[in-house]
Fold these 2 entries.
Entry 1:
Amino acid sequence: MTKFKKALKLFITFFKIGAFTFGGGYAMIPLIQHEVTEKNKWITDDDILEIVAIAESTPGPIAINSATFVGYRVCGVLGSALATLGVVLPSFIIILAISFALAAFQELRAVKYAFMGIRAGVLALVSKALITMFKKCPKGWVSYAVILFAAIVGVFTDINAFIIIIISALFGLVTYSIINRGSQK
Amino acid sequence: MIFLELFWTFFKIGAFTFGGGYAMLPLIQEQVIVHNWLSEEAIVNFIAVSESTPGPFAINIATYVGSQVGIASYNQNLWFSVLGSFSATLGVVLPSFIIILLVAKFYQQFQNSHTVKGLMTGLKPAAIGLIASAVVSMATTVFAPVGFGFDIFKNLQFYISAAIFILCAFLAFLKRKKIPPVVVICISAVLGIATGYIFNL
């Protein structure tokens, strides 16, 4: 396959992945695995685990990170650009179309009532996501201290979330270096 | 210029979000409200839309905020809404794209880097703490849209929201059967419409 054809195939594959996954990044991983390792044999299963690990430790949405990484592995910068475009495009088109409809319908009485109920439902869903993330987080006093710090400062002050993130990252770096000082030469 | 502002704001949000799912929510909430682009209520409404449509939350919300801001800024012109969506979405994607390209090139160094591991020990829990604060501010919007005070207990909407929340939380936390988020949203919508008309809110 020529490079361009491969890149086009990447675009189509990630477009499908973007169009058919509900619930965001993590929901996409099994689909990416199926398309990329089983169907197209672009990369191996080990690589998929690697990709998830990298996607989690770099900024940005998991979906974008995985698409860019797979695209790059398969055919360089062109591949990463087309894979990323593919995964973004379905959302972009669908939401753009919906945003007009949403504005038109939002004033209806039934829709207002529906969203009153939905907001309570969404609160339950996000609470559930929060607890799932908490369970997966590494245990230990550093984690608990940072969670408490970020939550308390986030709720009770107007301090910018970017600043909270920077302070937490530096705190993590400092405690990590102190704790692991013995194991490094 | 509004499109540059959209791009830059979402670029920062993309660059500072670590971890998937709702890790982006607290940053979106803060920035979008500071810029007066959407209300807190509209953001919570949109989470439901995003859960019921394909694609990652980050892209969905960037596209939505961009289209709303674009169309509001330029006399309801559709093309400006497309341009707004494009600016915000490009902004939220670009940091990931650039960083992953670099990481893919220097994979070994990245994987073994003690600096990266150290930063991550702070970043992961920070995301959790910030989402917790986002949940608190969402809860305020849901239960006390006009502010907390003694009179929220006289407000019928408070009791209805609380009842729907408890039921949905019960469904979401069921261990034996995994209920998809879209189903939880549909149930809460039906309950909202039914109680709304019954009590004539």
Entry 2:
Amino acid sequence: MKRKPSNYIALDFLSRSVNEGFARTAVAAFAAQMDPTLDELGDIKTAVSEAVTNAIVHAYPDSLGKISLRASIFEENLLEIVVRDWGCGIADVEQAREPLYTTGGAERSGMGFTIMESFMDALQVRSKPGRGTVVTMKRRIAMRSNGR
Amino acid sequence: MEFGITTKERSMTITLRGELDHHAARGTMQEIERAVEAALPLQLVLDFSGVTFMDSSGIAVVLRAQRRMQALGGAAELQGTPAQAKKVFEAAGIHRLISIR
């Protein structure tokens, strides 16, 4: 059985690109209670931005749909972020996670999953074509003694 | 995203200010292309010192600017890149393709 988080936030928003900034800023503000460094906050914001952008660009390419974001704090300062959509899904997740792979054309770099992997401790992608995608990321925030 | 453009002889510096994400990327690409087409510089310096956040969307912007400059027989480089953006470029290996300072 999964352990319960000591705290969480849950947000639903429409897949408009203007919400990318809102999503990463909201998670950063929530994570501030874990006393992260600026570097750690930057990593978290970047990973959230990548996951939310993927949902906006790829899950709902020609329409607007719901994106659900949940950030939870577990013991030992573990932050878990789940970004879920109900869009078109990914047929081949392994291929999508490869560096430089993109279906987004010249405006995308194909590096989103690579960035998420390198900035977080764990990344899980579950997807079903026609049903949607769930991206789960975990990052342990270093515990620091006071007096920083 | 806000832009400042200065041109001296055949060298152009474009200063970016704001958050460079997918939402801002298309407008940023268009702004850079418009400026480059108008002045046809041989050197393009993208000043990132005012970029307060960047994700992988910035990689596509930078690589596109570099390709445009190479097509003109010139080159592009980055200056003033903050630590957060630098980390994104390095995770993607982009520092091997373009000078990032």
